[in-house]
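Hi support team,

I'm filing this because I wasn't sure whether my run with cobalamin finished correctly. The job status page said complete, but I'd like someone to confirm that the output block is well-formed before I use it downstream. Pasting the exact inputs I used:
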Amino acid sequence: MKLGLNIFIHLIVSMSSILTQNLIELEHDKVLSEIKERLIQGEEPIRIIEECKQGMALVGEKYKNNEYFLAELMLSGETFKEAMALIEPYLGENTTEDNIKGKIILVTIQGDIHDLGKNILATLLKLEGFKVYDLGVDVNPDIVVEKVKEIKPDFLGFSALLTMTFDPMKSIVDKLEKAGLRDNLRIMVGGGITNTLVKDYIGADFQTVDAMEGVQYCLELIKAKVVIKARGGI
Ligand code: B12
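And here is everything the job wrote out:
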C-alpha cells in the first residue's frame, strides 16, 4: 500500500513543472531565481503561485508518507513565503478608502499557525478592492465574534489547515447566529484540508481550496447586493 502511494507521489512529481519539483526538493535558491526570471519576462503571477501551491501539496504528501519531517515542512514554508514576497509587487493593489467593494475578516483559529494560503487570499482580495481585516493565526474564537460585532463585515473567511479547528469554527458560527450577527454575513472556509462536508459541518456558506474562487464568490455576491439595493431590496 505504502509502496503504491510512493510510486503515485513520484509519478505526480515527475509530471510537475520544474518550479514545482524544485520546491518539493527544497531547492530554495533555484525556486527564487526561476520566479524572478519568469516575473521579469512578464509571466502571469497567478500561474506561478499555482505551481508553488502544487509543490506545497506534494511536500504535505511526503510528510504524511514519512518521507519528510517537520524540518522539511518548515523549509518549504519559508521558501514559499519568500516566493510570495517576490510575486506580490507584481499583483499590485488598487483599494482606496473610497472604492471599497466590501469588508472581509480573515482568520485562522486557535491552534493553527498555517498562514500561507490566507495571505494569498488577503492579497488577491485587496487587489479586487476589498477591505481586508486579517486577524492573523492562532486566534481565540471569542475575538472573532467580537470583531464581527465591531466591524460588521460582509464576509468572514476561515482559513483552516488543521482538522482540530473544525469544532471551534462551528462554535463561532453558532455564536454568531445566537447573537443575531449571521443574517447579513457570508461565511467562507478554505485551506487544503477543507471540503464541502467541512463547510456543512461548521455551517459556512461557501468552501474552496482555490483563493481565486473565493475572490470570485465575494465579487459575485457584492454585485448581487448592489443590484438588490438599487431595487430597494436591502
Ligand atoms: C507548509 C506547511 C506547514 C508550515 C506552515 C508555514 C506557514 N507559515 O503557513 C509549518 C512547518 C509551520 C507547519 C506546521 C505543522 N503542520 Co503543516 N503543512 C504545511 C503544508 C506542507 C503546506 C500548507 C500550505 O501552506 N500550502 C500552500 C497554500 C498556498 O495552500 P492552502 O493553504 O491550501 O491555501 C490555498 C487555498 O486553500 C486557499 N485558501 C486558504 N485559506 C482560505 C480561506 C478562504 C476563506 C478561502 C476562500 C480560500 C482559502 O487559498 C490558497 C491559494 O489558493 C501542508 C500540506 C497540505 N496538503 O496542505 C501541511 C499540513 C497542513 N500540516 C500538517 C501538520 C500535521 C502540521 C503540524 C501539526 C506538524 C507537527 N508535527 O508539528 C504543524 C502544526 C503547526 C500548527 N500549530 O499550526 C498536516 C495537517 C493534518 C491535519 N489533518 O490536520 C498537513 C495537511 C500535512 C499532512 N499531509 O499531514 N506546516
